[in-house]
């Protein structure tokens, strides 16, 4: 019941704030804030409830489940369930929802009601994706979050918003259709061997199929998730969408939507197709490592603040892909950690970019320079999150990347050393970002006012979480390995056999 | 006398349509006022719809050799009647409201609906042709109805020539099939072909190919699609909605019945040709739609592509295929009616000035993309309905179009039709471009819309029209979220066909 509530609070809140804006302009943002606030409280309450349970090694993994008939003709049910990883991703979603409402507070003036409607419905779709355990339902939410996101970019975005929004939609929707075909193929393969037509995750696990069928179906899923994550040859929508989106849109895109792709790899690709994922893993890991380096190098070449941050996402998510396909407890824990830490630190960098853009109306770093003297608080936060992004020990990103490399080394030492090069590259782009924007003389004569109370609260809380993740990562790691122990133990044992 | 009574009951939906056409004609002859005419038309349609539930207890009734009133036929008759109802309501203000003298329009609409009803119920070449001609001839007049304006007239003549041509092909095809098999009943053709050593010879095969060609013209499938954009653009918007839905839907329902009952799906050449047609329809329809700047033309090409999608499900030829086609067609009806409904509501229409050609006659419908700039901000509800329709055409969740596409893909994947399925995926990805383009134009900031030079005073929808559009949009979303209700109906519909 509470799982359904997690989705419907956001759905109802979205509709309410849309309508509220017509009755009383200005009410929309308060309603939106209240909605994500309730969502966050609920999610954290769930976490506290289950934290003790999750720490136990024998814990099976599912914290809550709900199932209701939906389309009996196809064996489709409204099946939601939550385990540790869904839980922390829902918490992340709710928190970033809060952040994105806060950072749109003054940025969005026109048609605010419709904006918050889209924002909350994107979040609802993402929460649905993290909770759905029926493949049809999963696909339903997967597609559902695209439309409001499209509107957010297309209406409130920056200069090239039409191009960026259509590109985003076509990439994700097109690959999503491939996934739909793959889902149907999987379901009918299962139907032929068992006579049961179902879209249920648990029943489709361990479907018997020939290796080539398994590989083809897995590729259908993989491409959809690879576009969303993004994995390198499928990433080209990302810099445009992130750059052109309004601040809240960039925060949600980087923090939440990219995670749905990684989550899909973790939840569906490997468990449903263990064998195929096993022999596809080297390719996927090579792509992940390529993404790590490629993103880092391209980030260094950017002059647009948001575009730079967007490319660092490619790099960081490459680590997540490496962690998932290395598939051992360390790398998986690292991958989950990296997802959370990246969501917070990149989200914060986009918030900073949004604050700069709101005041200066530009994102071009060549026009900044020397902002430290004008906006010391903002500059300090910029430095903090830039070094968080480069993976300084003591911050969440370091824990994630370190664990991933440790796990990866056991799977492939070559790729591990390649990926480690990214640490150098990330130092280059992160410090370049700080130097170009904040250091030096204020030659352009910017006169800007520093952070307001609302902005400080947003950024400080994000900084606190980054530090907490870096200094005491155990609660997140407790949640993560459950996925590694439960269904797809096959792969883990394979890997162990390989290692021995 | 006893035996004819159940037949009449079974035929009552069709009979009521015919009767109401006559009643409307007589009423118009004695008291020439648009209000009672539209009322009688709508009443006739409602009666016909309610009478669908009378024969439902009878599982499947063969009424003479010509017509079979099974659940499949009843479902599609219901769909046609409802669509005609919507079109009639949309026509009223568009053609001048209370000041108009357009009684003939409603008679023609009723006759066209009757033709469609006969088509979906026919089980014999004779009734096939009868229904087809009834539908087509009414449509010639409907398309060219504003006969003092250039475009509708042009469109009417184009349609007349091509429809006549395709009917000719169809007749020749029927003759060839008859020449080989000596029967015109679908079921008999089917049983003859299932005999072990029987198959279509060259005659019969050529006949079947010609029939498919003739039907292909009506369905606007790709090598036979040339007329579609011009006719769609030229015809008055509500009539375009009628062509897009009733005419095509009835034809497709008939084709599916023919293929299943007459065993035409066993011919590999024909199914191969059809899958080729499906793939090219999807790709060509979607690609050409990218180049258009006119909403009606975009929707025309989009409907070519949608019919291609339908064929993918169609080609599976099993119970799931029938369900998929029926669901997709229902979604397509709702969507197309809604989309053209919005165009109708935005257009000034042809109000009564049918003697001088200038007074109150709009040159064209509001069908340019520019006419819709910023619609989101000054007509949010209308734009919302249009957006919902376009997203449904694109197959986005929460709409019927999504479930329809899902159904079609399920049927295609189940039958392992990989190439058409992949074409569908590629085609609908391309399709997103032009649907999003319309949506993006509607979202454009309001200030741009005002400075737009082609902006002209647009009509405001009447209350009935608004209610109708809202009902369509609600239906679209309701059945997109809870499709199980419609699916239950469909499952009952299809069991007896194959």
Automatic annotation (TrEMBL), chain A:
It is found in: Endomembrane system; Membrane. This is NADH dehydrogenase subunit M. The keyword Membrane applies. It comes from Nitrosovibrio tenuis. The keyword Lipid metabolism does not apply. Keywords: Membrane, Transmembrane, Transmembrane helix. Its main location: membrane. It is a multi-pass membrane protein. The lineage of its organism: Bacteria, Pseudomonadati, Pseudomonadota, Betaproteobacteria, Nitrosomonadales. GO terms for cellular component: endomembrane system; membrane.
From TrEMBL, chain B:
It is a multi-pass membrane protein. The chain crosses the membrane at residues 12-31, 38-59, 71-92, 104-122, 128-148, 160-182, 202-227, 239-260, 272-291, 298-318, 324-345, 381-403, 415-436, 457-481. Residues 122-430 form the NADH:quinone oxidoreductase/Mrp antiporter transmembrane domain. Its EC number is 7.1.1.-. It comes from the Bacteria. Its main location: membrane. It is found in: Cell membrane; Endomembrane system; Membrane. GO terms for cellular component: endomembrane system; plasma membrane. NCBIfam families: NDH_I_N (TIGR01770). NDH-1 shuttles electrons from NADH, via FMN and iron-sulfur (Fe-S) centers, to quinones in the respiratory chain. The immediate electron acceptor for the enzyme in this species is believed to be ubiquinone. Couples the redox reaction to proton translocation (for every two electrons transferred, four hydrogen ions are translocated across the cytoplasmic membrane), and thus conserves the redox energy in a proton gradient. Belongs to the complex I subunit 2 family. This is NADH-quinone oxidoreductase subunit N.
């Amino acid at each position: 019941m509470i799982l359904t509530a997690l989705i419907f609070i956001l759905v109802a809140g979205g509709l309410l704030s849309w309508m509220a804006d017509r009755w009383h302009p200005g009410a929309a943002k308060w309603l939106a804030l209240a909605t994500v606030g309730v969502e966050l409280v609920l999610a954290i309450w769930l976490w506290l409830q289950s934290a003790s349970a999750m720490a136990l090694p024998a814990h099976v993994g599912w914290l809550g489940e709900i199932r209701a008939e939906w389309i009996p003709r196809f064996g489709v049910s409204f099946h939601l369930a939550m385990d540790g990883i869904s839980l922390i991703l829902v918490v992340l979603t709710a928190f970033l929802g809060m952040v994105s409402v806060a950072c749109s507070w003054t940025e969005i003036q026109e048609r605010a009601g419709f904006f918050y409607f889209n924002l909350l419905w994107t979040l609802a779709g993402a929460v649905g994706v993290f909770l759905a355990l029926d493949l049809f339902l999963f696909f339903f939410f997967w597609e559902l979050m695209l439309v409001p996101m499209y509107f957010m970019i297309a209406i409130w975005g920056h200069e090239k918003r039409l191009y960026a929004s259509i590109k985003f939609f076509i990439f994700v929707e097109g690959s999503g259709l491939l996934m739909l075909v793959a889902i149907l193929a999987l379901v009918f393969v299962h139907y032929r061997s068992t006579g049961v037509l179902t879209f249920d995750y648990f029943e489709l696990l361990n479907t018997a199929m020939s290796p080539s069928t398994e590989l083809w179906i897995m590729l259908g899923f993989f491409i959809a998730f690879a576009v969303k994550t993004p994995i390198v040859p499928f990433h080209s929508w990302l810099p445009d969408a992130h750059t052109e989106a309004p601040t809240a849109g960039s925060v949600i895109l980087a923090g939440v939507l990219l995670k749905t792709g990684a989550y899909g790899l973790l939840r569906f690709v490997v468990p449903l197709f263990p064998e195929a994922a096993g022999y596809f893993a080297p390719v996927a890991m090579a792509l992940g490592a390529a993404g790590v380096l490629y993103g880092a190098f391209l980030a260094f070449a950017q002059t647009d603040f948001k575009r730079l941050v967007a490319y660092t996402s490619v790099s960081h998510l490459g680590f997540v892909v490496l962690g998932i396909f290395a598939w051992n407890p360390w790398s998986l824990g690292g991958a989950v950690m990296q997802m959370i830490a990246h969501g917070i630190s990149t989200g914060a960098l986009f918030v900073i970019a949004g604050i700069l853009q709101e005041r200066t109306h530009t994102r071009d770093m060549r026009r900044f320079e020397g902002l430290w003297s004008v906006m010391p608080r903002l500059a300090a936060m910029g430095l903090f999150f830039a070094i968080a992004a480069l993976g300084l020990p003591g911050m969440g990103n370091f824990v994630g990347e370190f664990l991933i490399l440790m796990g990866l080394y056991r799977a492939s030492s070559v790729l591990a050393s390649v990926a480690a090069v990214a640490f150098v590259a990330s130092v280059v782009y992160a410090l370049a970002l700080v130097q170009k924007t904040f250091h030096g003389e204020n030659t352009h004569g910017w006169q800007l006012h520093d952070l307001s109370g609302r902005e400080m609260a947003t950024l400080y809380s994000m900084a606190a979480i980054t530090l907490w993740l870096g200094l005491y990562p155990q609660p997140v790691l407790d949640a993560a390995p459950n996925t590694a122990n439960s269904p797809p133990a096959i792969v883990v044992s394979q890997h162990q056999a390989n290692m021995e | 006398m006893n035996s004819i009574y159940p037949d009449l009951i079974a035929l009552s939906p069709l009979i009521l349509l015919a009767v109401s056409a006559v009643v409307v004609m007589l009423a118009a002859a004695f008291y020439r006022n648009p209000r009672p005419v539209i009322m009688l038309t709508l009443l006739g349609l409602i009666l016909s719809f309610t009478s669908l539930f009378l024969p439902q207890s009878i599982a499947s009734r063969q009424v003479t050799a010509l017509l079979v009133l099974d659940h499949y036929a009843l479902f599609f008759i219901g769909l046609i009647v409802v669509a005609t109802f919507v079109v009639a309501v949309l026509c009223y203000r568009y053609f001048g409201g209370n000041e108009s003298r357009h009684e003939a329009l409603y008679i023609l609409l009723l006759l066209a609906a009757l033709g469609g009803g006969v088509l979906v119920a026919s089980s014999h070449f004779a009734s096939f042709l009868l229904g087809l001609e009834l539908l087509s001839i009414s449509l010639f007049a409907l398309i060219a109805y504003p006969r003092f304006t250039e475009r509708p007239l042009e469109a009417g003549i184009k349609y007349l020539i091509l429809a006549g041509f395709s009917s000719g092909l169809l007749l020749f095809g029927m003759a060839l099939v008859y020449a080989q098999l000596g029967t015109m009943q679908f079921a008999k053709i089917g049983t003859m072909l299932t005999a072990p050593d029987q198959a279509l010879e060259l005659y019969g095969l050529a006949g079947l190919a010609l029939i498919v060609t003739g039907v292909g013209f009506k369905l606007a499938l790709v090598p036979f699609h040339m007329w579609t954009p011009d006719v769609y653009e030229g015809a008055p918007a509500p009539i375009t909605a009628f062509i897009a839905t009733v005419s095509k839907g009835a034809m497709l329902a008939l084709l599916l019945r023919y293929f299943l009952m007459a065993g035409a799906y066993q011919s590999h050449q024909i199914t191969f040709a059809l899958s080729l047609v499906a793939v090219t329809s999807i790709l060509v329809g979607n690609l050409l739609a990218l180049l258009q700047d006119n909403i009606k033309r975009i929707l025309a090409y989009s409907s070519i592509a949608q019919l291609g999608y339908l064929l993918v499900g169609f080609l599976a030829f099993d119970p799931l295929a029938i369900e998929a086609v029926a669901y997709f067609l229902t979604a397509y009806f709702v969507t197309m009616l809604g989309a053209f409904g919005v165009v109708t509501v935005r257009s000034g229409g042809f109000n009564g000035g049918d003697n001088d050609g200038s007074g109150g006659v709009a040159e064209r419908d509001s069908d340019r993309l520019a006419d819709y700039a910023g619609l989101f901000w000054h007509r949010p509800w209308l734009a919302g309905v249009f957006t919902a329709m376009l997203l449904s055409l694109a197959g986005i969740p929460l709409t019927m179009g999504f479930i329809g596409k899902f159904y079609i893909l399920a049927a295609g994947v189940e039958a392992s039709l990989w190439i058409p399925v992949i074409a569908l995926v590629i085609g609908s990805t391309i399709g997103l471009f032009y649907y999003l383009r319309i949506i993006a134009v509607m979202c454009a900031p309001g200030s741009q819309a005002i400075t737009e030079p082609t902006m002209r005073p647009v009509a405001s929808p009447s209350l009935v029209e608004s209610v109708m559009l809202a009902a369509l949009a609600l239906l679209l979303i309701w059945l997109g979220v809870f499709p199980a209700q419609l699916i239950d109906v469909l499952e009952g519909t299809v069991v007896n066909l194959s």
